[in-house]
Each structure stands twice: as structure tokens, then as C-alpha cells.
Amino acid sequence: MNLDSETKAVELPDDHGTELRLWLRLLTCTTLIEGEVRSRLRERFDVTLPRFDLMAQLDKVQDGMTLSDLSKRMMVSNGNVTGLVERLVESGHLDRRTSETDRRVQFIRLTKLGRAEFRKMAGEHEKWIADIFGDLSPKDMRELMRLLAKAKGSAQRAAKARTP
Amino acid sequence: MNLDSETKAVELPDDHGTELRLWLRLLTCTTLIEGEVRSRLRERFDVTLPRFDLMAQLDKVQDGMTLSDLSKRMMVSNGNVTGLVERLVESGHLDRRTSETDRRVQFIRLTKLGRAEFRKMAGEHEKWIADIFGDLSPKDMRELMRLLAKAKGSAQRAAKARTP
DNA sequence: GCCAATTGCTTGAAGCCTAAAGAAATTGCA
DNA sequence: TGCAATTTCTTTAGGCTTCAAGCAATTGGC
């Protein structure tokens, strides 16, 4: 019996099962963690993940950011950010200021209250994440970082190839 | 100078920066790929990712599944599945049949049309995923699978500890 | 200066998603 | 049997998300 033809008979011409399983595992893993973080944010601080993420972006800068910057960094649509910011201004966490040189542009900043609350949440959040990844060794984490970077690069290459 | 105390001075008492960066990279990577898949499904087949996912679950079985099974497998809420199924029944892709032994239960199946369309989509989808992960070697993929499994286990452990 | 193209943001329609409350059916236990 | 607890599913209110269309302001080429 020819082992080679045997193998070919089992393997279909284009077998991409490995990639598919990898993608499903990646998705499951992220969904699981995201759900856990979402629950904890809700229970502990009564805040949603998108609001937390938006505040996290703003906490990194001192003098504010435009809506476009926010939507690029958060990888969500412009209209989405409009709504999120609106609700966070409403609740007193954010502050909008129209640019003086370009009246289309608005600079969004954390208010004093917003920054204080965010810092409090971020402290706990960081501990949750450390707990969630607690079973991974430093070496595991380094390796995972490296492979995810590679996967990200690969995905960006594929996305670019489709939309030149 | 004492190197040890030097190190301690730099490292904060609880530094969880690595875990946090890892989580952000995982999230970015998944969001990127998910967005790409979503776009392609929309452009090519005018279908949403949740609908595709739901049909993927149903394609795996012959004789249908209950709404509860679906919501567990998809890791989304019950009410969410109710709405998704409703729209897919509407469009002729799904078929509902009330259980004869328990009138609360409904078995959901793909229709002939639904299965045919799903198979067509799934074939292309698999190629997209293979392309998206194309830069990873088989060894990279094996290693990534292993580390993600470990991360998943760790997250499940953490989630369970919070909700006993 | 003029005006077409671009940029920054908002709006509207549609769909996705959750938590919580509730309706209907079944189960299990006294 | 009787009925309380549970299970399955739907509904509702609110928020998130996208895409496409639209408005207002700015820019750049002429």
C-alpha cells in the first residue's frame, strides 16, 4: 500500500481545518474573558465595557482627543463614539470643547470626576486581568504575545490585500 | 548599590502590566479578525456574523436543537437567540417544530435552503480564515492553540471562583 | 477669490445584545 | 394529588453597533 496516496485520500485538497479551529478557539477565549470583565464592571461599578474602554483611551492623554481619534483607537465607527460620548458627558464623566481653529472638531476630556472614577476602576480591572491569566507562566505570556503579534500582522496583511 | 532593592523600587508592589498588555493584544487581534470576517460576510453574502454563527451550530446536527442549546453553545443570552431565530425563520433559512413531549421546547433546524446557503458560505469562510492566518507556520498554530487552551482554562477557573 | 473635494461629526434605520420580569409547561416532593 | 420550584422561552427597556446619508467647516487647486 502506498502511504502517500493514503494520506492524500484522507486530507482533502484544501484542508483548512487547523486555521478554523484556531480561529474558533481564539474567539471563544476572547468572548469568555470579555464576558467576565463585562460582568465584573457591571456588578462592581455599574459601568459598561465600551464606556470603560473609552475612558481608558482618554486617561492616557492629558489634554483630550477628538472623536475621530477615539473611533480609530477603539476600532469602532464614528457614530458609535458620538453616542457613547454623549452619554458620558451626560453623566458628568466627560467634557467637550470645540476647537478654536476648526469648528468641526471637538476635544473630549475626562472631567475630574471621570478621571478619579476611572482610576479607581482601572486599579481593580488590572487585578481581575492578572487573576484571569493567573495560570500562565511568564514564558507562556511572552510566547502568547509573540504569536498574537504575528497573527495580527497576518490578519492586517490579509485585510489590506482585500481593500487596497 | 543593592541591585535587588533597585529592582524592587522599579517594579511596583503589584505590577500586572504584562497580563494587561496580553489581554489588550488578544482583544485587538480578535476584533481585527472578527471585523474582517464580518465585512466579507456582508459584502459577499449579505449576512451578519451572528446569523452565520447560528447556522454553523445547526449545521453540525441533523435533527435540530433547542433554543437553550443554541444560547449555551453560542454563549449569548436566551432572548438574543429568540430574536435571531425569528429573523432566520422569516427569511426561510430555519424551521421551528414544537416538541411533542414538552410543549415549552422548540426544535430549530436548517431548512433545505438554509443548509445549502450555509454550506456555500462556509466553504468561502474557511478559505478566508486560512488566508487570514496564512503567515503562521503549522508549529505557530499548534503552539497558539495550546496557549489559548491554557488561557481559556485559566479564565474559566477565575470565573468559577467568582460565581461558585 | 471660487468652488469641488475632503474631513469631522451627527442622525436615522436596522440589527445585535443583555438583564430582568413574566408566561407557560413540566417536575418533584410531601 | 397538590402545588412549589424549576425550566423553556418571550418580552421589554435600555444600550451598543454598523452603514449610509447628510450637514457644516476646511482645504487645496485653479
Automatic annotation (TrEMBL), chains A, B:
The regions listed as transmembrane in this protein's record are none
The UniProt keywords, alphabetically, are: DNA-binding, Transcription, Transcription regulation
A GO molecular-function descriptor? DNA binding
Q: Which Gene3D superfamilies match?
A: Winged helix-like DNA-binding domain superfamily/Winged helix DNA-binding domain
Taking every annotated instance into account, which residue ranges of this chain make up the domain HTH marR-type? 19-153
Q: Which Pfam families match?
A: MarR
Stored SUPFAM superfamilies: Winged helix' DNA-binding domain
Query: Which GO BP terms, alphabetically?
Result: response to stress
Keyword Protein biosynthesis, does the record have it? no
- Keyword DNA repair recorded: no
PANTHER family per record: MARR-FAMILY TRANSCRIPTIONAL REGULATOR (PTHR33164:SF57), TRANSCRIPTIONAL REGULATOR, MARR FAMILY (PTHR33164)
| Name of protein | Transcriptional regulator
Could you tell me which species this protein originates from? Bradyrhizobium macuxiense
